[in-house]
Every structure is written in C-alpha cells, then in structure tokens.
Design a protein that fits this description.
The complex is a heterodimer of chains A (478) and B (694). Chain A is globular and about 80 Å long. In chain A, 34% of the residues lie in helices and 15% in strands. Chain A has 478 residues and is an alpha/beta fold. In chain A, a hairpin with a 2-residue loop joins β16 and β17. In chain A, strands 1, 4, 5, 6, 7, 8, 11, 12 and 15 form a nine-stranded mixed beta sheet that branches. Chain A contains 13 helices and 17 strands. Chain B has 20 helices and 22 strands. In chain B, the strands form six sheets. In chain B, strands 2, 4, 5, 7, 11, 15 and 17 form a seven-stranded antiparallel beta sheet that branches. In chain B, α4 crosses α5, α9 crosses α10 and α18 packs across α20. The radius of gyration of chain B is 34 Å and the shape is elongated. The chains are: A alpha/beta (478), B alpha+beta (694). At the A-B interface, β6, α8 and α9 of A face α12, β21, α15, α18 and α19 of B.
C-alpha cells in the first residue's frame, strides 16, 4: 500500500498524474509484485523506499498467501486429534513420578490424576487419520490436510504462549509471522491491507495486538483488524453529513492542491500521498462489496454455516477466502475460546460446533477453486492441554506446553499425513517433535524463504522469526 | 547501583505530599503539646508498659502447607512459620491448608496478617491497596494419629486489633455477575463477619490511607477446646469471597502474608497493642531511639482516657490523609549494609529471565575509559562516568537524536545503536563538533537546538529538483531542507491546534479521546477495558497525554506509526497508507476539527470569501495561499455552496454533526455557508503539506 513504484519505473514524479496512478500504480503494483515473485526479484535499495517491495525468495514459492486459524486459549488435543487408549485405561490414577519430574503447570499440581479422553475416536479418509466425534466435517477433508500431533512449545500461559506462536519469542516486541510474511512477499493488493485480522472468539486473545504487530519491521506490515460486520476497517464510512459526492469533490480538491505542491516541491512522497487518498476512496467503494456475503451461493453459505450480516467464525472464514481472492497476503482469524480448565465436554462440543464446519468448508472451497494449491491454511492454538485433570471433577484440563496438535493444508503441505506421536499418556511429544520454531521455519520455507536468511537489522543485529532456532520439517513438504 | 526493585507502591502527587506533610506536622504538634501538658507522661507510659508487657498468653506458631491444589496460587513459606501468597490471584475462592500441632489442648486460633515488601503497598493483603477480606474462617480438626476423623470446629467469639466499619465493597471488587443474578450484597467490616457462616460478609482491615498497610491480627475462640493427647491435625479453610469477577491483580481481595498460631489459654482476645509496638517493647527502654519512643507514645496516648480530645483531633487529621494511587514503581532495596541492598545479577541465557546464567558484577566496558580509582558503586559515579569527555558517546547520542528530530534522519541513522554494528555517521566531523559544542556549553540542549535552527543547512528550502530527491531520497547529504511527515502525535495535534480546539494544558493524568467502544470489549479486547471518553475539553489534550493500552493501541496514533510500547523505540518508521487518509478524512475528532475551523473562519475570517479562505489556509499551513491554491479553494467553495444548497445533504448535520441549528452565526451567514466551509476546512486538514514538516 505504499506506492513508490514510479521511483523504479523511471517515471518522473512531476509527470505522474492521476491517470498514471490509476492505470499504473494501483493495478500495476500488484501485477509487478507477482512478476517479481515469479521472476527475478530485486529488494536492496528499493526496499528502503517501498517496504512492501517483495524480497528475493530463496526457494520456489509454494504458498503465496496464508490463512491462519489461531485457536487461542489452546484446544484440547486429547479430545480432538490425539487418541490415547492408555490414558483412558489409567483414568483417575496418578501420573508416573518420573514423567512429571520438574514439570510446571499453570494451575494444577503436577501429580493431579490422569483424565481419559472424553470423546470417541475413529479413523477417517484414505489416510486413516484418527479424529474424534467432535470433528465430523473435518473427517471429510483429512486427506487434504497434514496433522502434526507432536507440537511442542516453551510457554504455559496464554499471553507468552500466543506471542511465541505469533512472533517466535515469548517477549513482546518481535514482528509477527504475518508481518514477516508481508515483509518477505510484499503485497498483491493495493486497495486492501496486506495483512488482515479477525477476532471471533468470546473475547480477544490475551496477547492482544502484539499477535499481529509489526514489531521493529516497518509498521505497514502490522495486521489490520477487520470486523466481519459493518465497516470492516475503522473510519471507512464518511462522517455524518458527508455523502459520496462531497467526498469525491473533496478528494478532487485534495488531489489538485497536493499536485500543485508536488509541482513546486518535487518530493515524490507527495505523489505517494495523492495515491493513498485515491486508494482510500477505492477502499470505500469496494469494501462493501467485499463484505457482502449475500453474493455467495446458498450452497456455499450452507457449507460454511455462514449467515450474511452476522458476526461469526464461519463468516470470517468465508471472508478470508474472499480476501485472499482479492490479493490479501495474510488473513488471521483469532478465535479465543478454547481455555477449558473446566466444563471441558460442553465447551469443546460448542467450540467444535462453532468452528469445525467452517474450517472444513474453507479447505473444500479453496480446493474447488484451485486456490488451495498455493494458499497455506494453518490451524492451531498456543499450546495443548494436560493429560491430568483440573478441578475436583473430571471435566477440565490445564495448560500443557509439552505436546499438542496442529494441522495445516495447501500451499506445498503434504496432504493426508499424520506426523509425529506423543507418549502413551499424551504427556510428551516423542516422535518427530515439531517445536514452534520448526513450524515457523517450515511455513517460511513454503513461502519461499530460508528462515535463516530472511532477516531485519534492528538494534545492532539481524533478527529472524526463528531467532537462532528452527529446522524445516521435511516430512511435511509435498 | 543495582539496589532497586519493582515495588507496587502508593504514589502521592506533589500537592498530596505537601498535604501529608501538613497533617504529620499537626499530629506531631498535638502530641508534643500533650507531652508538655503532662510532664509525667514518660512515667505513666512506663507504668502502662509494665502492665501490658506480659499480659499476653503464649501462642504457638502452627506450621501449615497449602492443599488447595489447582488454582494457580503459589506460596512462599518463611522460617517464622508465616506464608505469602503469590502468582495467580483468584478472586472468589477458599484456600485450604493443613498442619499438625503437638499442642494437647487448643482453645483458640490466631491469624496474623503481616506486612511484606513484596505485597502491594507493603501488604498485608494482595489487593492493589494491600488489603484483604476474610469471608469465613473454617477449621476442621482430628487427632494427629487419626487424620480421617476430622470434625468441623465451632467458634464462640472473634476479636481483632482492627476492623473497618461495616461497608459495601469498593467498585473494583463489585461483581457484575452477582448484580445480574440478584445483586451484590457483600459487605465487610467487623471480625465477627468471618465466623458468622455468611460468605457475603467478611472481616475487613482497611484503616484508610496512611494507616492501612500494617500488621493485623484476629483471634478466634473455640466453643469447645480441642483436646488430643497425641496432638491435633488441622484442616484450615480461608474463604476469600470478596473479590471482583475477573481473576486479575486489580480485583482480588486476598490475604497476602499471614501466620497461624494456637494457644491453650482460656478466652484470649486479640492483643490490642500493635505488633510494631510490641516489638519495641522488647527493647530495653534505655536503648530505644527517639522514633521508637514516639511510636510507643503514638499508640499509648490512644489508651489514655483523659487524652480523648487530643486523640479525637488527631483522628480527624488522619481522616484528611490523601488517598494515593497504587502503582508499580522503582523502590530502593532495604538492607543493613550497602552490600545487602545490592541485587545479584545474572546473565540471562538468551535473554530469558527464567534461565539465569553466570553471575555478573557491574563495571564499564574495557574499550571505554575506566571508572576512577576507588570509585564507589553509586549512581553518581555512573552518571559522572557517562558524561566524561574521554568517551563522548553520551554527547554524540543526544546530539544525534536532536538532529534526527529536525532532519528526520540522524547523522547516524541507527540512533538506538552506536555500536560496532551500527551504520557509520554520514558526517562524522559534524557529529563530533556538535558533541563538543554540547559539552563545552555545560550540556545545554537549548544551545544545540539554537545552533541547528540557526544554521544555513537547516534553513535551506526543501523545494528541490526531482533529480535531487531521486539522488538522495533520505537527504543524507543535506543538499536541501528537511521534509518529512510529522510523528503520529503531531498529526493529531496539528488538526486540534489549527482548529482552535487544542487544550494546551501541561501535565496531569492521561486522557481518553473518542475511540470506537468495541475496541475495548470482547472479542477485540481480552477483557473489558475502561475507556470513558472525556466529556469536556480534556479530550482535546495533546496526543502525548492519550492513554495507551499496549494490547489495544489508540487507532489514530497506531495508524501513523506510533509504536505501542512493546519495546524501546527511538526511531519510527514513516508509512504513507490509505488507512491514514481514512483517519484524517473520517475519524470523528478530525471531523470535529474541520467543523471547528469552519466556525472560526466564519467568525474571524474577515468580510470576503477570499479573506476567509486565506484565514483558514493560514490557520492550517501558516502561509498564505498561492493564486492557484486560492483558485482551487474558491472553486470548491462555490461548488459546495451550490451542491449543498440543492438539498442533497443536510447542512446542519454536515456543519455540526448534530441536528441542532447553529446559533452563533453572524448576520448574513447561512448554515449552508458553514457547511461548505466545513468541507473546505476538511480538505485543508487533509493536505500532504499539513502533516509534513518542510
């Protein structure tokens, strides 16, 4: 959204007029970004001028865009993806002492009784992936996704866990994965933000806006919070008393006055400002169409469980598809509602009802339009939940960093794979362990970047999403 | 150096501190007067001391361990048998403990609440004021050799050395959930509330500002003494039901540091003598300091009936003691020797505070000049070392930041980093010359500001050929004047200032200008946040005073690249995006500025359209319009008067944002005209030049 393309298209800023902007800049930049993705790209000096200029990818770009379904609060893998018959058998008994030695939990004492899975599991699809009865629609798409049952993280409280999952560090201040993505790949959309965020849970993520922040990267890379009803972005509507005509008159005058000043001053930043106003106006015109889900077929709406005009996770999933179709690079849906310290059975049932149909629909929908090929879909929380019970009864689990499950699809992910395993009680990930840093390395790889080479210099050193960690998980690559 | 810690303390403003000083002096004066009027006070106090010295039964500390399990509270256990709750703070719950005592007979339990520097305000509780509320005190007992045979213990009476008057809970503890489900009936006050089998009433220990953060005790006497020849196993429940809905630090009302004891004395009561005074009484009178004697006197006088009038006067003074603001702050560590006051410091492995590595001592880098021989470890030593001419880094860094403020980019373009990995200065000699100027002029920042502003370099025009802009986009070679979009805060301040709305007050609390309320409610915010939009001209304070939630940044400032406080930032990026255009076009406060400017323009802009346009233009851009600009604005005005006059929009709504007809128009001026000038003012506030320093 930072249009300085005239600087390297060799067009004299003084000769840049409105027609040129409309023809070349708005429509042109997206196309140029694409051409740079596919062909020879140059970052270097241009990047200093245009932070949205794509970097030279290191590998073939498998994923050109990302839809990240962040299940904040941490869903219980033991009720959804990671079936543990032994845990079922030992329900009510204490965990082995050597297993919990040195273990710290957020709330429970480490020797709280083991709690068996609360739902039935069955194998699905050609790949035979094991899912619980909570995920009937996801069962229909298991052959299109890769399930990682051996995720592992360092944090066991929500805010640091989310920030680690989003930025590669438990401490505030690092750029989010979405920001790194647009930093690396640039923007394909000139009249929409490159990084769009929805929040659809019962509350916002406890890590707050830092989950989609730009950290020390140029601030154009930060995620822009969208609402899924009404004005998608803040201040999109004109103030009271200003109608579209007056807005158009005003923008004519602003452009003319800015152009006069550009003629005298010569600073191309004024041309950029002129363009920003043109784009703002275009955003005002096109956003209502983007947000209008009634344009979707009845069948599509039903598949997602979306209802036009409502605010829901399903609506946001459908909007995510509409956004990536329009060139948005990164869409993140934060759904904070999975923190089942208690009321595990009922709340999980509700959460799965609210989300799993739309997740499956998104996969099907992207697949049928061919977008899944180069769109990466990621689903997961910030950590997992304990095999031990929380609370007096048998209906809650505490935070658990040692093992949890995520799934991903499309964009170069090998479909129909179930990777990794936990021990017989589901306490530790033991086979093909994937740390958050490994996940980040893998996702960046699919976006075309060597995670050790995509860097930004800040406070005297080159920072990476993966800091000094991370191994690409080859088994996940198609 | 290194002798502070992050304390949760009570802050008092300078005015409040003056007030406190006045109160303390007056109390002092009354007490001195009492002593003068009663020259035998020392003898009488000594007699009193003899009476109370041994009037307490023997109490045996009961060592207990927490058994609550999975609610996230963690306890520190101390050698004196006390414990301190830390970490997560549930707000409506019961904490359980078990302990065994060899006492063969128990007639009463004592619960002491003790101050602790780790607690807010010094404790003894965990609320933001360091207070607690004990809803119910539960005991189950069994013979130590048959723990399963526990029986609930009934209490006959309870006494405390202090309890506040019975009252409803303060707003931070009020439960919206309870209000929605029949009302929040909870109260706290007398200690009997802790044994009345009513979880809605609690023992409160809040003695008000200035006197609340001290030790308190309660004694609970049993209906039937516990008799077990082999000792007694005890299961203790401390019910703490008097917090708010959200389990966070701001809404808990929990016990902080406390200790349990038992006695076999018949019918004991809570010792009315404060712990602090008891401790002084242990010291032989001849060894007591003047402060200690004064402390004993301060309590003793309250026990003397004939001092009632003076005591009442002092009590009234205490009632005037100002309520401070509890806040996190740096506080000095306490200890007997300087060495005790130092904190041990470790290298953190990869910066992780949970992984302390090698212990380190403070010192200065070898490649810079050394500390003076035999220098002490004070901050003053460090301060002097920092500004030593032998290593003028501090001077270079500060002049570089001043330069950056004027030119948009520093002479070193990584102002946060002057190390080996920073970029080289564009003009190293200039940087050093400015650094020397700063040091030679007694570190006068004003001197550097004046020097830069009066320089030929700064006074150059920023108008240049496109070739010049292309050759040096960031103007590192300084061939032209600086030209850059101003910082986020100034973008907003310019609109407020140009429209005359700006409230230029200096200092005071942070303010809440208009913002969409949904940002502060779930599902955007994790929990509901308070954002009470200022009803008065506080909302027009400079952006510097806009309240900042790290998790919900203020949209206007964030969109113009204001960092949200996650990390230290001395250099901002400057983006130029359509979202910024939407802010300055449509954000309610910017629109209000356009309306205010239009109103000013009609009131003070002179007789003609040309004079009015020029007035508005100058208000925003501090220069007169060129003929071409005047022409554009004239055309716009004409177009709008015509268009609005045709009735396409409601001019009242456009000009005022409401449906109320403006009453302050001068003769011959129309609402349509005001509406058209509002459009024109909005255009002016949206020009590139308006938010650009050039």
């Amino acid at each position: 959204m930072h249009c300085q393309s005239h600087a390297y298209q060799g067009i004299h800023p003084l000769t840049a007029n409105r027609r040129w902007f409309l023809q070349q800049c708005q429509l042109g930049l997206g196309a140029m970004a694409l051409s740079q993705l596919n062909g020879a790209a140059t970052a270097g000096a241009d990047a200093a001028i245009n932070p949205m200029a794509p970097k030279q990818p290191h590998f073939p770009v498998k994923a050109k865009r990302v839809i990240y379904l962040f299940m904040a609060g941490a869903p219980s893998q033991l009720e959804m993806f990671d079936y543990k018959p032994e845990l079922e058998k030992r329900d009510g008994s204490r965990p082995p002492a050597d297993l919990i030695e040195g273990y710290r939990a957020a709330f429970i004492e480490p020797d709280a009784a083991l709690l068996g899975p609360k739902f039935q599991f069955a194998k699905h699809g050609q790949c035979g992936a094991e899912l619980s009865e909570l995920l009937p629609r996801m069962a229909e798409v298991v052959d299109d996704i890769a399930i990682v049952r051996s995720m592992k993280t360092d944090a066991f409280n929500h805010a640091p866990g989310q920030i680690l999952m989003s930025t590669g560090s438990q401490q505030f201040g690092r750029p989010s994965f979405g920001a790194w993505t647009t930093y690396g790949l640039g923007s394909e959309s000139e009249n929409l933000p490159a990084f769009v965020v929805f929040s659809t849970g019962g509350k916002g993520p406890s890590g707050g806006a830092s989950n989609w922040g730009a950290g020390f990267l140029p601030s154009v890379h930060q995620g822009v919070l969208f609402r899924n009803t009404g004005d998608p972005v803040l201040y999109l509507s004109n103030p009271n008393g200003i109608n579209h005509t007056i807005q158009a008159h005003s923008l004519d005058a602003i452009r003319s006055l800015n152009q006069r000043h550009l003629d005298i001053v010569g600073d191309p930043e004024i041309a950029t400002r002129i363009n920003s106003y043109e784009l703002a106006m275009r955003m005002q015109l096109t956003a209502p169409e983007l947000m209008d889900l009634s344009q979707e077929s009845k069948e599509t709406l039903e598949m997602y469980g979306a209802e036009p005009g409502k605010s829901s996770f399903a609506n946001s999933c459908l909007l995510a598809r509409r956004l990536v179709e329009r060139g948005v690079r990164f869409v993140e849906i934060m759904h904070e509602s999975w923190d089942q310290h208690g009321n595990l059975k009922n709340d999980l049932k509700k959460n799965c009802n609210d989300t799993e149909q739309a997740c499956a629909a998104l996969i099907k929908d992207l697949k049928r339009s061919g977008l899944l090929e180069d769109t990466l879909v990621v689903w997961g929380g910030e950590f997992g939940r304990t095999p031990m019970v929380q609370g007096g009864g048998d209906d809650g689990r505490d935070h658990h960093p040692n093992a949890f499950t995520m799934w991903m699809a499309g964009g170069g992910i090998k479909p129909g794979v179930t990777l990794g395993a936990t021990d017989e009680l589901g306490f530790n990930a033991v086979e093909d362990v994937v740390h958050v840093h490994d996940l980040h390395a893998t996702l960046l790889h699919l976006l075309g970047f060597d995670h050790t080479q995509l860097t930004y210099r800040f406070q005297g050193r080159d920072f990476r999403l993966t800091d000094v960690h991370g191994q690409v998980v080859q088994k996940l690559l198609a | 150096m290194n002798n502070d810690h992050e304390a949760f303390a009570v802050y008092h403003s300078p005015q409040q501190r003056t007030e406190i000083q006045r109160i303390q002096q007056q109390i002092q004066r009354i007490e001195t007067q009492l002593q003068q009027d009663h020259p035998d006070w020392q003898q009488r106090m000594a007699e009193w001391e003899d009476q109370v010295r041994n009037n307490q039964p023997e109490w045996t500390v009961l060592v207990v361990r927490n058994t609550t399990g999975d609610n996230g509270v963690r306890y520190y256990y101390y050698d004196d048998g006390s414990l301190r709750a830390s970490s997560y703070a549930p707000t409506q719950w019961t904490a359980y403990f078990t302990g065994t005592t060899s006492a063969k007979r128990i007639t009463a339990f004592r619960l002491e609440q003790l101050p602790d520097p780790n607690l807010p305000g010094g404790g003894p509780g965990r609320s933001i004021k360091g207070m607690s509320a004990l809803s119910e005190f539960h005991i189950e007992a069994a013979p130590a050799n048959n723990r399963d045979a526990t029986k609930k213990v009934e209490f006959a009476s309870a006494t405390a050395d202090f309890a506040n008057e019975a009252r409803a809970l303060e707003s931070e503890f009020v439960s919206q959930y309870r209000i929605n489900n029949g009302g929040d009936k909870r109260t706290y006050g007398p200690v009997e509330f802790a044994i009345d089998s009513d979880g809605d009433t609690a023992w409160g220990i809040d003695a008000g500002p200035g006197r609340r953060n001290v030790a308190r005790k309660a004694v609970f006497v049993l209906k039937e003494p516990l008799e077990n020849s082999d000792g007694t196993f005890l299961n203790i429940g401390l019910q703490q039901n008097h917090g708010g809905d959200n389990s966070d630090d701001n809404q808990n009302h929990n016990l902080g540091r406390f200790r349990l004891s038992v006695t076999d004395a018949p019918n004991p009561i809570a010792d009315p003598v404060p712990l602090e005074v008891r401790e002084i009484l242990q010291i032989p009178p001849s060894q007591r300091t003047a402060t200690q004697i004064a402390t004993v006197f301060r309590y003793w006088r309250t026990t003397v009936a004939e001092f009632a009038a003076a005591n009442q006067q002092i009590e009234e003074l205490w009632q005037q003691f100002p309520e401070g603001t509890p806040t996190l702050t740096l506080a000095a560590r306490t200890g007997n020797s300087p060495h005790d006051r130092l904190r041990t410091t470790h290298m953190f492995k990869r910066g992780d505070w949970l992984q302390p590595g090698e212990q380190v001592q403070f010192g200065t880098p070898d490649f810079l000049h050394p500390l003076p021989e035999g220098a002490d470890a004070s901050r003053l030593t460090l301060a002097r070392w920092l500004v030593d001419r032998r290593s003028p880094t501090a001077a270079r860094v500060i002049v570089n930041r001043i330069w950056q403020a004027y030119f948009g980019v520093g002479l070193v373009d990584t102002p946060e980093d002057f190390g080996v990995r920073s970029t080289a200065p564009s003009h190293p000699e200039l940087l050093d010359w400015l650094a020397c100027e700063l040091m030679d002029n007694n570190w006068s920042l004003k001197h550097i500001h004046r020097l830069i502003c009066s320089s030929a370099t700064y006074q150059q025009t920023s108008h240049a050929s496109p070739e010049a802009y292309q050759a040096d986009p960031q103007n590192r070679l300084l061939a032209r004047g600086a030209r850059f979009r101003v910082d986020a805060e100034i973008v907003r301040d310019i609109a407020l200032s140009a429209s005359g709305l700006l409230n230029a007050d200096i200092g005071g609390r942070s303010v809440y200008p208009p913002a969409p309320s949904f940002l502060f409610q779930p599902p955007v915010s994790y929990g509901p946040k308070v954002w009470d939009v200022e009803p008065d001209d506080q909302q027009y304070r400079r952006s510097l005073y806009v309240f900042k939630f790290r998790s919900v940044p203020y949209p206007t400032l964030q969109t113009f690249d204001s960092p949200n406080g996650d990390f230290s930032c001395v250099r901002r990026e400057r983006s130029n995006t359509p979202l910024q255009s939407l802010i300055t076009l449509n954000e309610p406060q910017f629109m209000e500025c356009a309306r205010a400017l239009a109103k000013n323009t009609l009131a003070s802009g002179g007789p003609t359209d040309e004079s009015k346009i020029t007035f508005a233009f100058r208000s925003v851009l501090s220069r007169t319009p060129s003929p071409g600009e005047l022409n554009d604005l004239h055309a716009l005005l004409k177009r709008e008067i015509e268009y609005i006059g045709q009735g396409w929009v409601n001019p009242i709504e456009l000009a005022t944002g409401t449906n109320r007809v403006p009453t302050d128009l001068q003769d011959g001026q129309t609402v349509t005209q005001l509406a058209a000038y509002t459009v024109l003012s909005r255009v002016l506030l949206n020009l590139d030049e308006t938010i650009t320093k050039e």
